[in-house]
């Protein structure tokens, strides 16, 4: 589990591509501290398992499924990536629940300044937007952000200067693709809702209690 609070921005050192998979080697510093082979590190919001460790980097396998569902396939040597180690059990929960399991890819439709804030408008498929709500949480390339507005074709987030400086957002441009992970709680609730009739599909306190919430 992750929080969406990026620890550092690393760079892609090498990419060894297979027929349907790849091995990423990521140059990093902070996330290497205390990391062992088999540990999880989120790379642009995607949970990857460390397979090799080097003094200045780590390597991880990227499966066919991950390449199909994310924007990792567009990375090149030198690309900046957001990095976060898995949250320790005694850690501070600074963001929201981020599983590192990307739902899909969005595209930056607009970037605009609003005094000190910077707004990013992301276009995404309806399958993702159904779980995006105003003032709810979303992870963009592994960054925990609050949804400021929702539109039929996308949503917008307003970021503070610190977030832009400490992540790869400062290198993003209009037209770039980003990884998106919606709030996992909403997806679980939808899965648990009965669907026999519209009446049974009503969310109630009693139903949530029966389902363990």
From TrEMBL:
<comment type="function">
    <text>Catalyzes the dismutation of two molecules of 6,7-dimethyl-8-ribityllumazine, resulting in the formation of riboflavin and 5-amino-6-(D-ribitylamino)uracil.</text>
</comment>
<dbReference type="InterPro" id="IPR026017">
    <property type="entry name" value="Lumazine-bd_dom"/>
</dbReference>
<dbReference type="InterPro" id="IPR001783">
    <property type="entry name" value="Lumazine-bd"/>
</dbReference>
<feature type="repeat" description="Lumazine-binding">
    <location>
        <begin position="97"/>
        <end position="193"/>
    </location>
</feature>
<keyword id="KW-0686">Riboflavin biosynthesis</keyword>
<comment type="pathway">
    <text>Cofactor biosynthesis; riboflavin biosynthesis; riboflavin from 2-hydroxy-3-oxobutyl phosphate and 5-amino-6-(D-ribitylamino)uracil: step 2/2.</text>
</comment>
<keyword id="KW-0808">Transferase</keyword>
<dbReference type="GO" id="GO:0004746">
    <property type="term" value="F:riboflavin synthase activity"/>
</dbReference>
<feature type="domain" description="Lumazine-binding">
    <location>
        <begin position="1"/>
        <end position="96"/>
    </location>
</feature>
<protein>
    <recommendedName>
        <fullName>Riboflavin synthase</fullName>
        <ecNumber>2.5.1.9</ecNumber>
    </recommendedName>
</protein>
<dbReference type="InterPro" id="IPR017938">
    <property type="entry name" value="Riboflavin_synthase-like_b-brl"/>
</dbReference>
<dbReference type="InterPro" id="IPR023366">
    <property type="entry name" value="ATP_synth_asu-like_sf"/>
</dbReference>
<keyword id="KW-0677">Repeat</keyword>
<feature type="repeat" description="Lumazine-binding">
    <location>
        <begin position="1"/>
        <end position="96"/>
    </location>
</feature>
<feature type="domain" description="Lumazine-binding">
    <location>
        <begin position="97"/>
        <end position="193"/>
    </location>
</feature>
<dbReference type="Pfam" id="PF00677">
    <property type="entry name" value="Lum_binding"/>
</dbReference>
């Amino acid at each position: 589990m992750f929080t969406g609070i990026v620890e550092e921005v690393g760079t892609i050192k090498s990419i060894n591509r297979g027929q349907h998979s790849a091995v990423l080697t990521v140059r990093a510093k902070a996330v290497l501290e205390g990391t062992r082979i088999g540990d999880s590190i989120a790379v642009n919001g995607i949970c990857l398992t460390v397979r090799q460790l080097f003094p200045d980097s780590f390597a991880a396998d990227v499966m066919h499924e991950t390449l199909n569902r994310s924007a990792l396939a567009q990375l090149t040597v030198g690309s900046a990536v957001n990095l976060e180690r898995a949250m320790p059990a005694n850690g501070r929960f600074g963001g929201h629940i981020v599983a590192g399991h990307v739902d899909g890819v969005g595209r930056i439709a607009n970037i605009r300044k609003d005094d000190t804030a910077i707004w990013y408008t992301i276009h995404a498929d309806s399958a993702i937007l159904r779980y995006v709500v105003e003032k709810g949480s979303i992870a963009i390339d592994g960054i925990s952000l609050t949804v400021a507005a929702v539109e039929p074709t996308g949503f917008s987030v307003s970021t503070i200067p610190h977030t832009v400086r400490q992540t790869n957002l400062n290198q993003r441009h209009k037209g770039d693709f980003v990884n998106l992970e919606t709030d996992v709680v909403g997806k679980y609730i939808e899965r648990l809702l009965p669907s026999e009739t519209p009446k049974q599909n009503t969310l109630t306190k009693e139903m949530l209690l029966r389902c363990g919430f």
